[in-house]
């Protein structure tokens, strides 16, 4: 179930990107293209089903988008957008996928040069606040009477949410460094708890000891367990 909701988040992100381009740049509402954007944003995980991660790489996306658009233009001859517009839409929607994966559990940004995964985990596989905000944007997008102010408010909420999570994560890192730095930290991982909302989990390894713990958003560090390195 959670993997479907995860894909739903990718879809609504792609949908929203195209919707904003429609409303604020092109000044028209083409819902086919919003759905197109949503599907494009899900494509990298469909590719994963065949054990391939090319579409998760920033290096591959510019070329993949060209191929994708040649394919779409052959398939759908009544394209209302020009090639450059659909190309930019494809790139942005694919990048939105990478961005969410980067903010979730990591992504091989420079594949095939390296398989190293980069991450700045602030979201769980399914972040319900994110899902609700994007879903509201989609629902409101079907009502032409809803003013663009509503979308600006929703976008501001989204931005504030991401900023609060980032600041809270940095605050957690600061606390961890203050507490453990004298023991020579060799590994530090922080990620949102999958069981508790507004809670971080952390793992920290020093030269002698491995610590697991958690902390509420802007809360105090709570050590859960401690192991000595072998
Ligand atoms: Zn992915």
Describe the fold and architecture.
With 230 residues, this protein is of the alpha+beta class. The protein folds into two domains: 2-146, no CATH class; 168-228. It contains six helices and four strands, in the order ααααααββββ. Strands 1-2-3-4 form a four-stranded antiparallel beta sheet, with helices on one face. Helix 3 crosses helix 4 (83-102). The longest helix has 33 residues, at 148-180. The mean pLDDT is 88. Zinc ion binds at residues 44-45, 56, 97, 101.
Q: H/E order of the elements?
A: HHHHHHEEEE
What share of the residues lie within helices?
A: 40-55%
The CA-CA distance between the termini, in Å, is 39 Å
Query: Total helix count?
Result: 6
As a whole number of angstroms, the C-alpha radius of gyration is 20 Å
Structural class determined from secondary elements: alpha+beta
- Please, what is the average pLDDT? 88
Unreliably modeled segments: none
In short:
This is Metal-dependent hydrolase. This protein has 230 residues and is an alpha+beta fold.
């Amino acid at each position: 179930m959670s993997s479907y909701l995860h894909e739903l988040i990718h879809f609504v992100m792609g949908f929203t990107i195209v919707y904003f381009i429609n409303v604020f740049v092109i000044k028209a509402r083409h819902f086919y293209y919003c759905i197109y954007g949503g599907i494009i944003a899900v494509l990298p995980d469909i590719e994963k089903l065949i054990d391939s991660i090319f579409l998760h790489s920033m290096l591959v996306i510019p070329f993949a988008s060209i191929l994708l658009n040649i394919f779409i233009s052959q398939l759908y001859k009544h394209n209302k957008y020009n090639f450059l517009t659909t190309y930019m839409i494809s790139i942005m929607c694919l990048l939105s996928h990478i961005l969410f994966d980067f903010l979730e559990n990591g992504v091989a940004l420079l594949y095939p040069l390296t398989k190293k995964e980069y991450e700045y985990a602030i979201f769980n596989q399914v972040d319900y606040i994110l899902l609700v905000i994007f879903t509201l944007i989609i629902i409101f997008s079907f009502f032409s009477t809803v003013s663009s102010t509503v979308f600006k408010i929703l976008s501001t909420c989204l931005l504030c949410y991401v900023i609060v999570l980032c600041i809270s994560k940095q605050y957690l890192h600061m606390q961890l460094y203050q507490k453990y730095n004298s023991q020579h930290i060799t590994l530090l991982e922080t990620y949102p708890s999958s069981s508790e909302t507004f809670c971080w989990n952390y793992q920290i390894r020093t030269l002698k000891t491995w610590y697991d713990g958690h902390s509420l958003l802007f809360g105090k560090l709570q050590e859960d367990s401690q192991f000595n390195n072998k």
